[in-house]
Amino acid sequence: MKSNWFQKKIDELSCLAGYKKPSKYSNTIKLDSNENYAIQREFAVDLINQTQKDLDVREYPLGGVERLVESLSSYIRMPANMIGLGNGSDQIIDLILSNFASKQTKILTSDPTFGFFEERCKLYSIPTIKIPFTDNMTLDLKKFLSNSKKASILYLDSPNNPTGFQFVRNKLEQLIEEFDGLVIIDEAYVEFADYSIIDMTKKKNNLIVLRTLSKSFGLAGLRIGYLVANERIVNVFNRVIQYPYPLNTIAIEAGILALQESKYISDITNQIKKERSKIIEKLRNMKAFDVFDSQANFVLFVAHGTNQRIYKALIEQGISIKNLGKIGKYDGCLRVTVGSKEMNSKFITAMRDLLT
Question: Domain residues of the chain, as ranges?
Answer without folding.
Answer: 20-36+263-355, 42-260
